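hiii so my PI (J.) wants the whole complex modelled not just the main chain, which honestly fair. so below is everything: two entries, each one labled with what it is. i double checked the lines twice but i was tired so who knows lol
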Amino acid sequence: MGLAYGWTEDLLMSNAEIWLIILGGMVVTYLTRLSFTVLVPPARLPPAFSRGLIYIPPAILAAIVLPELLIIDGQITISATNIKMLAGFLAAFVAWRYKSVWLTIAVGMLALWVLTNL
Amino acid sequence: MNTHINLETPSPRVEFWAGARDQVPILLGVIPFGLIFGALAISVGVPPLAVQGFSLFVFAGSAQFIAVGLIGEMAPAIVVVTAIFVVNLRHALYSASMSPHFAPLHMRWKLSLSWLLTDEAFATASNRYHQGSTASAHWYTLGTGLTLWTAWQISTALGIWLGGGIPASFPLAFALPLTFIALLIPTLVDRPTVFAAVSAGLVAVLLSSLPLKMGLLIGAVVGIGAGVWMDRRSANVER
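here's the output for the full assembly
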């Protein structure tokens, strides 16, 4: 997450327009979260739909995690120089072996620190 | 994970605090993210109240980052709101996954728990629904969601206050992907779930250059399809 930001700049957008974005963002986000819990009752969905539900957590979490580990500066980087990948894979092993969130984060951060300072 | 749950139906109070406790390690990843969001939004020129408004009312990490980035580039409001919608489309998957669990609940509960349905709260609650008695698990979901919501507000406020004092290469930001790894691994319970995760991850990597995290969304949908396909295939082999 290589975010780069400098000093505060003068923004040309009005305060009212920013609050309009917040309001609109709130509405569209809440609609996505209500989509199946409230808006479309599960009883109306085809049976094939419910078979897919159990694959949502592994699929979405892997789709979040893998690019975080393998993409460096917009490039797919699978090599020993990619310390995020190495630290992430070690953390995955710890998560599998010890089933502890604390330990996974601690080992992952420690590995990143050690590899950065090697 | 979820070591505080036993096989009997725990009381609402026990569930609520178990949910809160299970969210605490995840906060290690969320708090740095909130700090960076607050600081970044201030540096773009968003007024402090509006920065907090994003966290209070939109309450969606990645979408808030993208919105603030677009505001900095003077994108029109309709473009920014559309971007927020596309980035948050994955929440519809969380909504779908939770719908059978929320179905017996009162509308008040559905509305409040849906409001709290973020990446982290979804993953934690989802693990809870896959073990033990789930009769009071909505209290667990509320505890875990409110803990995350509170931490997101406080870390955003701290980020606003610290402003440019936070270095751009804040190494603690790596804690967030690590929490997702810790949440991902327990979901890999059989061949179809592993296949779903591997397919989703690979597609997301290959499509990572697409704007608005579209690669993430397409990867997730492909992964879900892959899991269903593998599930059907093994069912046919057994027959």
